[in-house]
Every structure is written in C-alpha cells, then in structure tokens.
Amino acid sequence: MKPYRLASREDKDTIIEVHSGEGTCSIGEGYCTIIAGPCAVESEESILTSARLVKKLGAHILRGGAFKPRTSPYSFPGLGVEGLRYLASARKETGLPIVTEVLDVRDVDRVLEIADIVQVGSRNMQNFPLLRELSHQRVPVLLKRGFAATVEEWLLAAEYLMSGGNRQVILCERGIRTFENSTRNTVDLGVVPLIKELSHLPVVVDPSHATGKWQLVRPIAKAAIAAGADGLMIEVHHHPETALSDGKQSLTGANFARLMEEVKSIAHLEGKII
Amino acid sequence: MKPYRLASREDKDTIIEVHSGEGTCSIGEGYCTIIAGPCAVESEESILTSARLVKKLGAHILRGGAFKPRTSPYSFPGLGVEGLRYLASARKETGLPIVTEVLDVRDVDRVLEIADIVQVGSRNMQNFPLLRELSHQRVPVLLKRGFAATVEEWLLAAEYLMSGGNRQVILCERGIRTFENSTRNTVDLGVVPLIKELSHLPVVVDPSHATGKWQLVRPIAKAAIAAGADGLMIEVHHHPETALSDGKQSLTGANFARLMEEVKSIAHLEGKII
Amino acid sequence: MKPYRLASREDKDTIIEVHSGEGTCSIGEGYCTIIAGPCAVESEESILTSARLVKKLGAHILRGGAFKPRTSPYSFPGLGVEGLRYLASARKETGLPIVTEVLDVRDVDRVLEIADIVQVGSRNMQNFPLLRELSHQRVPVLLKRGFAATVEEWLLAAEYLMSGGNRQVILCERGIRTFENSTRNTVDLGVVPLIKELSHLPVVVDPSHATGKWQLVRPIAKAAIAAGADGLMIEVHHHPETALSDGKQSLTGANFARLMEEVKSIAHLEGKII
Amino acid sequence: MKPYRLASREDKDTIIEVHSGEGTCSIGEGYCTIIAGPCAVESEESILTSARLVKKLGAHILRGGAFKPRTSPYSFPGLGVEGLRYLASARKETGLPIVTEVLDVRDVDRVLEIADIVQVGSRNMQNFPLLRELSHQRVPVLLKRGFAATVEEWLLAAEYLMSGGNRQVILCERGIRTFENSTRNTVDLGVVPLIKELSHLPVVVDPSHATGKWQLVRPIAKAAIAAGADGLMIEVHHHPETALSDGKQSLTGANFARLMEEVKSIAHLEGKII
Fold it and tell me: Whole-model pTM?
C-alpha cells in the first residue's frame, strides 16, 4: 500500500492554471511551461530587465527570490519585502505570473499578496509547519525535491501540502546530493517518468541548480522535456558574471534564446503545447 | 579561510552548563553527558515512568518529543503543548533538565518556557528563520546534523545560531544518509574528532537514530565515547514494543543499564567526568 | 591541471568504426548508435531470436553477455565460451557486430576472437590489470562507469585503456548508486554534456541498468540523446518475463520498436545520423 | 531468507590462525589483532625499518603493498615481485606474518608464496574471477569492503571466497563513499556489530583509509574496538611526509605507540586478548 493517497496516481492528471494579466498559463500533462528569471531579485531595475528579457524570449512565468536560503549567515539573504514589491512591478509591466520562495512560515501572508505560485525550497521540503500552513491556502505551490529526499518522502511532502485542501502542487526535481562532485548536484531524470507513474501531479525540472554549470543547462533542459517533464525552471541573468548568487549556473539572454528554440522542437515532438 | 568564525576552533573549549533542581550539569570537553528518554512524550504517566527509569540508571538529562517531525501527515505528530506540560512534571519530579525539539518558529516561546535545552532536528538544520530566532535566545541549543549535511554546512548552521549572540550550541551527530540500507542511517564517527579539531563546541552522538536498531545502540554508544564524543543521546522506552514511534531503536531499561555501565568504563578511561 | 591526458578534450572528436558483414558502423559525435540485445546469452536459439528482432527494428550492434558478473555465487554466471560461440552465430546470420563483456583477464584472447567491441563492466572499471591488458589490444572497448565512480576516476580508467596504445574507448553511463532506491540506480545524464566538454571520446547511455524498470527505459533513452549522448545500450528480450537475468528492465520487441521510432525523431532533431 | 549461507551466522565464531616464526597469531572473536605497516613497500630498507618499528610497538602482523591499485596509470604502482621479496625479508627478520594485496588473478601463485594473509582490496571486492581463484586456496583472505558495497554484497563476496572450500575470510571495513568530503571516506562502524550479528567471520577496521587523516586514526581505532571489532589495520610509516602513497593518513612511530597503548586499554575493557 502506498503511504500517500491524495498525491497518488489517478485517472486524470492535474493541470494547474495560473492567471495573469495576459491570460491563463497551464502547468501539467500536455504542456511545456517555462519558468525563468534570476536566482535573486537584486534591484527593481535588475528584475525588470530580466523580466522583459525572459518574456521576450518566450518564458511563461517569472522566477526571482526575495527571501533566499543561504548556507552561510554572511551571504546575501535577498531583499525581502522590498524584493516582493519589485516582483509586483515586474508582473505589472510584463504580465508574467510570479513564482517566489517563502522561507518563513510567518511570511506566508506577505508572499501570498504577490506570488502567483509559491515556492517551497529544497531545504524546506520537510518543514512541516510551513507545508501545513500552505495546505490551507488557495495558491499553487512549487515543491522542490529535498536534495537528499527519496521519491516517497517527496510525495509525502506533497501529501502534507494537500492535506488541508490545497490541490495545486507542482513537483520540481532540482538535483540530488551524491558522491559525484563534478556537477553541483546530480540531476535525477529517472524520477520524471516515475512520478508520472506514481502521481497525477505535474513535474518540472530545474537544470540550473541540478548541474550548477551554465554549459550543462541547455542539454539537460532538453533531456528533461524528452523524459516527459511538464516544464522547466531556468536561471537567466542579463549579466551572470555580476550576479549576487548562482552566476555560474545562470544563462545569458543569448543562451536562453537558444535553449528556448531547442526545447520548443523537443516539446513539439512530444506533442506538448509550449 | 574557514567560512565560519564564531563556531571555529579557539584555545578554550566551550562548556555549557544546564541548571536544574539537582544542581548543575555540564556539557563539553572533559565530561560525558547522557541524555536519555523516549522518542515522543506519549502520556503523562509514560514520560514520568521513563524519567524515573533513566534518572535511576544515571542519565543526566531527559529527552522527549512534544512536537514530532513526521515524514507522513498521517503519523502521530506528538502531543504538542500538552506534551510540554508533561515534560515539566517530569522535571519537577525527577530534577532532570529537559531537552525537547522545536519545529515551528512560532512555538519558540512556548518551548522555551519548559526546555532547558532546545533541540533543532535534522530536517531543520537549515531552517534559517528558526536558527535566527534561536540565536537571540539565551537557551542552549542541541543542533542535530542534517542527514545529508556536510560538516561545513553543519558548522555554518551553528554559526547562524551564534550570529545573534547565543554561544550555547551543542552539536549532535545522528547518522547520515548513504547508499547503505542495512542500518537506518550511517553513523559518521569520523566527524567527532574532526569537529574537535575544527570547533570549540561540544559534540554528542545519537546512536539510536544513527543505527535504527536497538542491538547496535550500545556498541555505537561506546564507540562514540571512545572517539571523543562529549556525550550521548539515547532513546529509552519502558516498553519499546508499544512505543508510538521509533520502538525498534529504543532500549529497554535493562539494556540501558548495561549501556551506562559499559559507557562509564570507557568514559573513565578517557578521563571524562560522568 | 587535468590528471588525464590521452582521454582529454582535443579539437577532434574520436569516431570509432566497427566493421561487420554489413559494412561499417560508426560511434561518436554526429552519430546515434543503438546497441541492443538480451542481458545474457541464454541459448543459441534465444540469442538468434533476439538478434533477428533487434536487427529488424534498426539496432546497429548486438549485445549479449556470455560471462556475467553476478553479486551472488549462486546466480546464473552466463554460458561462458559456449555463449561466445552463439554470439558468433548471431553475427554470422544477422551481420550485426557484437559487444560482449570480459570479466577475467585470462579470457581476453577468447573474447577477442568473437567480440567486435569488448565491454568492461561497472564492477571492473578499476580492475587495472584488465584495463592494462586491453590497452595493448586493437579492439574497441566499451567502458562502463563504475557505479560509484566519479567522472575523473572514469576518465582515468579510460586513460589506463589508452596507455598501451589503444585509442578506441567508448564511455558508457549506466547509473550511479545513491540514497534513492525507487530506481535501481540513478541515471546521471549531467555527465553526458560534461564528458563532451572534458574528453574527445564517445559517450553512450544504458538506460536499462540505470533505471532497472522497463517503463522508464524509453523516456530515459530519449533524454540521453537529447542531452547529447552518441548512442544507447538497451536490454531487449523476446520474453522478458522468462529472462534468466534483468527481466524487469528488458524491453519487449514492441516496446523497443516504439523506443527506436521516438529516439530517431530526437536524433534527427539533434542532427545525428541514425 | 538470507542470500548467503556459508558466511551466515553460526553458533561458533570463526577464529583464523596465522602461523609465523614467532608462534601463532589468532584473528576473531575474543582477540584484538593489530596489522600495521606502510601503504606500499618502497624499498628493502624501508620495509625493514617499518617492520622493526611496528614489531617493537606491539603489532601482530605486517602490512605492505607490493602490487598497488592506483586510480591513475601515472602513479607509483608498487614494486611488484621485488616488493614481495622484501616482505619475505621483513618476515624472516621480525617473525611477523605478512598481509599483502593481490590485484591480478595471474599473480595469485606468486603472492601466495610470500603472503600469510592475502588481501583483496576495495576495488576488487566484486572481482569474481579473483574471488573464485582464492576460494580454492588454503590461505586466509582479508576482504576489504567495496567503497560502495552494501553489507549484503560484502557478505556475498565472502560467500564467493568460501564457495570453493576456503573458510578463512576476514572482513575489513575501510570506509564508504558518501556525499561527505571532509574525510576521505566515511567510516561505517555500525557494520561492526551488524556483521557480528549476521556472520561468524572476524571483522577488522582500517581507520587509515576510512578517514584519510592521521589525526583521526587513533580516535577511530579506539572507537572500532569499542564497537566490537576484532582488530585494526593501521598505516604506519617512519617518515609519513616522504611516503610514496598515503602519507597524510600514515602514523609516525610515536603516534602509533600512543594508539597501541590506548587501544590496549579499550581491548582489555572488552575482555579481548591483545
């Protein structure tokens, strides 16, 4: 018997719809949804520049961190509430829906004022009070896989999110921690078809965190869609070399444009709407 | 250059003193401190029985979870505030100081009313808002190593706890996640002497979670002290077979008595006060 | 400085040519080469049936194990020399070149009489006497990544193979061992573009061993080609449910036919000859 | 049902006796046997110096590699047959029995002329032809755990060694590969009491390879004996800083002397003959 119920495979795949100034964006089986943007919101001008760039190149959703989980207390923690305001500006101007991370259960209300999709990061995948709180909300949640979480633990975290009535969970594979250090993490694409077998929930892949190297992002993005993923989450920065975090894994506009073109071809082969 | 400063090796080892009805209990270099008790507080009677048992057998501190992090939303989550009250009764009767886990940053005040030492669990080692909150408190914090955390990440989590002025951090190795499944986790005793080299903070070992099998707890407890650990955290239950959680790794009173006796011999060899 | 030299990136990619009754089969950048067949040679009739099947469906090379590395001394160890003879029959009839594993350095000559490509299995990636012996031969070697080998160790094993003058090494990713047990291994597709950056050698992927589940083989095969792999190694069996080994991860003819069709579309997108 | 039979727990523990110029040395339950010496035999004078040193300080068996498995083809591969001769000299002079590694199945006879115990290294734990060959010999085999081998795979490798009639297998834990890189490997002491439960075979621990840092060797050596190990394998070099391999994890004579003294106290506590 499977230990999860609400997250378990059903006849019908869950399609999550996000509404924005520009209409409706769908995430789930049959679609290929591209989430792109910088790791962190660094300034109003910076996020606006990134938002215009990824919008022009075909992204459907803007990502950007206002609250950043940092391994060291001395690293840039994000702009916080100010960052949320800048994300709101970017949505207003570009019409792109926003996905941003909530770190602190006490910030849920503030983040929900702005976010079209709330992200639960890898380190919080088993932050049960945060999952419980979000389970009572009506917002789609992008649930990153814990970097050392099994598929079962990941689906049980989704179960927590659904236990209060929220049905809108998007799973995001972002690489796992293994003995191999030539990449930042080890991208586990086998879980993409496995999740499709076990669950009705959409699954997207973040090749930026998974590999940690911009040169590997495009090939792994294509591989993810070929494996059946419902979308991608890509770090794009107009000047990766000056980014306050994750510059090494961020794509320039030119590289993101090439990724979009090649991913579109694969998505079309797979019969996905992009 | 080391990325942590406050947690870094200094001439002087940190000794943490916990005051209770019975006097002062010290944790750190030169001491061998035994924390024992059930995984979860199950009822007032149950925690009192356990407290009397471990007290009689020589434990210095009582453990017991009121708020339990559970992988599944359908598992017993602990008794919550009621469990805290029972822990208070157990302290009152036995004089043993209490260590108990805080899961939710919103519960910090409530837990601090009761806890002599607050535990941050393995899944919360990188719950940065919780670490920040506890860094402003005057309570000793037992910081369990994340089950997939490197030593550097662990010491950086300690750095977070110390960044607000709190100097009372106890590190607890509790096993890491590896490919090996014949034990629940893989106990990493190499980190005990390594932490002693890198940091001034006390380090204790939890062989119960590390191995997941009661038969392995006693040998690994002895090994931990022989490797230089400053103490142990042991799950003891008066009826392991009926425990609501972690019964397989809990010791009976008889087994704990034997552990105490053998650990004492090793501690004496090592010149530690027990 | 890189610790390997002969295996290191050069301007020119290495293309390995295998000659057979039917002409020349190329492996390397620009090609998509499909190696298919049963895990083990089980009988003459069985390998002939499989050979005809995979030939008809478009495979370029026949795989089949005569000497099988088995974790238990009580498992079927392969037919040995008899199995080699059956492989020779299959090549004679179908014209398909043969790849088969050598386990014992004392069997190299015997295996070389039959094999067009010799396989060094995952458990032998650091069997240095075997690597040294093969480095003096003129046969292409398919070098499977050790299931816990880093990319650097893998390329150093290739360096061993090349150190005696052999330049014909094909790298094969077959999944690594991690904490995740919902798949047999964790397929590490990030290494495909990484190897392309670090080395001039061809790299193929074995999704059968990597996932251990036939349902995941097709999606991961497609993902591998989309990530830039130069080919695939696929377990196909006419009756997977009666296979003497690895039945759970073997494709039926019908499933292999579908895989070939979908892989061809991806290969064409990538501009690869298939 | 356990997949191994010959290696499985029985009433009686296996005690292996090694005869040398000085009498009999026993390995198994109730004994604490110390194997010490340099990683590699570097010259006749060097191994004689080391042999005299470890003999004087109380070691029971001399280790030293003549054939060395090296990750790179450009590293020192050992002195080979010449190294075996020097080991023979060292035994002749000191009376210490010799343990040395065999890498190549074709070298078994040559190594057996000299070795009192043959070592199968971590990378060869699943070199099945080598295991089969040794299973027909009458020599004790020290079987190192593969650096990514499960306990079951390790016991199945022992089963291979016993399948031809050889009953003299000594298991050696030497650290496993995990995500943690602050030590060379992660020493898995939980397997010591676990092996005692599952098997009748002796189990020893190699803290030198397990930790890769000489400062950690003494604490982990003591921990291993406290956990129930039947002995230790320790790298000792008269000038670690000039050692051709593994200098960082080798003890000086002074450090080994201190280790011996402290290990003796623990062994006495455990009721072991040392």
Answer: 0.97
Lowest mean pLDDT among A256-265, C234-243, D46-55, D80-89: C234-243
Number of residues written out for chain B = 274
Question: How sure is the predictor about B1, in pLDDT bands with cuts at 50, 70 and 90?
Answer: low
Kindly calculate the radius of gyration of chain B based on its CA atoms and give it in whole angstroms.
17
pLDDT of residue B2: 80
Return d(Cα D88, Cα D51) in angstroms, integer: 11
How much is the pLDDT for C25? Answer: 94
Q: Which of B128, B105, B231, B246 is nearest to B170 (CA)?
A: B231
List D residues 148-177 in contact with A (Cβ-Cβ < 8 A): 148, 177
SS3 D25: strand
Cβ(D199)–Cβ(D240) below 8 Å: no
d(CA B269, CA D267): 11
B203-205 and C16-20 beta bridge pairing = unpaired
Domain C28-269 has CATH 3.20.20.70: yes
pLDDT at C230 over 90: yes
- Whether D227 and chain B come into contact, CB under 8 Å, resolves to yes
Of B35-44, C239-248, D198-207, the one with minimum mean pLDDT is C239-248
Residue C20's pLDDT is what? 77
* Token digits of residue A7: 């997250």
Compute the nearest-CA separation of A235 from chain C (Å).
17
Helix (H) or strand (E) holding C203: strand C203-205
pLDDT at C1: 63
Domain ranges of chain A: 28-269
**Mode of pairing for the β-strands spanning A169-173 and A141-144:** parallel
Phi, psi dihedral angles at A146 (to 5 degrees) = -55, 145
Q: Inter-chain contact D220–B176, Cβ cutoff 8 Å? A: no
- Inter-chain CB proximity C153 and D103 less than 8 Å: no
Q: Are C16 and C28 in contact (CB under 8 A)?
A: yes
- Which residues touch C51 (CB under 8 Å, ≥6 apart)? C37, C62, C90, C91, C93, C94, C96
Question: B157: alpha, beta or left, given left = phi > 0 and alpha = psi -120 to 50?
Answer: alpha
**CA atoms D55, D59, D60, D65: torsion sign:** negative
Give the model confidence (pLDDT) of A11-47 as tens digits.
Answer: 899 999 998 777 789 999 999 999 999 999 999 999 9
3-class DSSP assignment, residue B252: coil
